[in-house]
Amino acid sequence: MKNNKGFTLIELLLTIVLLSVISIISFVSINAIINKNKENECNSLVNNIKMAAKEYTSDNRYKNNFNTTINAKYLIDNNYLSSNITNPYTKDELNTEELEDIVISIILNVDKTPKNIIITDETEEGVIRECILQD
Fold first, then answer.
1. Which of 16, 55, 102, 130 could form an SS bridge with 72, CB 3.0 to 4.6 Å?
2. Quick one: which of 103, 110, 112 has its CA closest to 69?
């Protein structure tokens, strides 16, 4: 009787295929988690900008008779918005130029409360454009 010790070629191939399938499934799952996290960061950034714009409008409701346009740098300089805004995709902090290119248009109701807040991203790289499109 022959006593073989070791694995056959078929057993080794099946093991490799099984490990490959498991790694593909885990890669897809991890990628989905990372994308969901970036989407949440985007939503948070857009919401923070909108909240700052609402606060600005509330504080200046009697000074502004018409619809207003400001930028993120103005909100930061006047302490309505945190100064460390980062790009959710690259994790780089936005510089002054990029902050000036994030324009917030506030459309007022008759009673001078914000009816609509529109955020446009005019930066070259579209720093938060994806965030705005998802909102």
1. 102
2. 103
Task: Give 99-108 pLDDT, tens digit per residue.
Answer: 888 888 888 7
Per-domain residue ranges of the chain: 9-134
Q: Cα separation of 92 and 80, whole Å?
A: 21
Long-range own/partner contacts, residues 36-42 (CB < 8 A, 24 or more apart): 38/88, 38/89, 39/134, 41/88, 41/131, 42/88, 42/128, 42/130, 42/131, 42/134, 42/135
> Which among 104, 98, 111, 101 has a CA at the least distance from the CA of 80?
104
* pLDDT per position as a tens digit, 18-63: 999 999 999 999 999 988 888 888 888 888 888 888 888 888 776 6
Q: Residue 123: which of 88, 83, 96, 85 has the closest Cα?
A: 96
| 95 backbone dihedrals φ, ψ, rounded to 5° | -90, 175
The residue assigned the tokens 């006593």 is 3
pTM: 0.71
| Helix, strand, coil distribution of the chain in percent, nearest 5 | 50, 15, 35
